[in-house]
Amino acid sequence: MTVGIDPGSRITGFGVVEKKGSSIVYVASGIIRVDTKKPKHLRLMDIKTGLDDVITRHEPSAIAIEDIFVARNPKSALTLGEARGVALLASAEAGVDVFEYSAREVKRSVAGSGAAHKSQVAFMIGKLLMMDKEPATEDETDALAVAFCHVLRTSGIAGRIRCIIED
Predict the structure, then answer these.
(1) Could you tell me where the DSSP H helices lie in the chain?
(2) Cα-flanking dihedrals φ and ψ of residue 64, to 5°?
(3) Which residues are catalytic, by number?
(4) What pLDDT, in 10s, does the model give residues 105-136?
(5) Cα dihedral sign for 35, 60, 130, 143?
(6) CA pair distance 101, 6, nearest whole angstrom
(7) SS3 label, residue 19
(8) pTM metric for this prediction
(9) Three-class SS of residue 64?
(10) pLDDT in tens, 2-21
(11) Are 32 and 47 spatial neighbours (Cβ–Cβ below 8 Å)?
(12) Which domains does the chain have, with CATH numbers?
């Protein structure tokens, strides 16, 4: 079982996938939404509590997080870093190994191009995980995509996945 995390200061997405045979299957996904009126330290605690619950519920063998990127706004980068730090702490406290992937690598794993648009990633993750519908939020999509990327990269099935999409 792999949990993917898309950390955010207001919304943190999570996605859970599992390798079954030569397939990667959807298990669960959702978001942890914090009250933006609360002080920052309490919002970070709410993110940590939510992630602790996800990790306890799904008992992952790995946690995948998108690698940090250079943001145009330094304050945004620091805020994202705080949420990301909470995700890393929750993983460490649970004793689960963390793997990091660049946004380009995640997009390439899911959509075949590191420059894919978010809508392409959402469409493809829904197809690849054989979901009835695309994830409800971008945060879930991103979390599922990073989890999918991890399983794909570490399972040895990367060269065998083929996706045929009918219009």
Answers:
(1) 40-58, 74-94, 103-111, 118-128, 138-155
(2) -115, 135
(3) 6, 66, 139
(4) 999 999 888 889 889 999 999 999 999 888 88
(5) positive
(6) 11
(7) strand
(8) 0.90
(9) strand
(10) 999 999 999 999 999 999 98
(11) yes
(12) 2-160 (3.30.420.10)
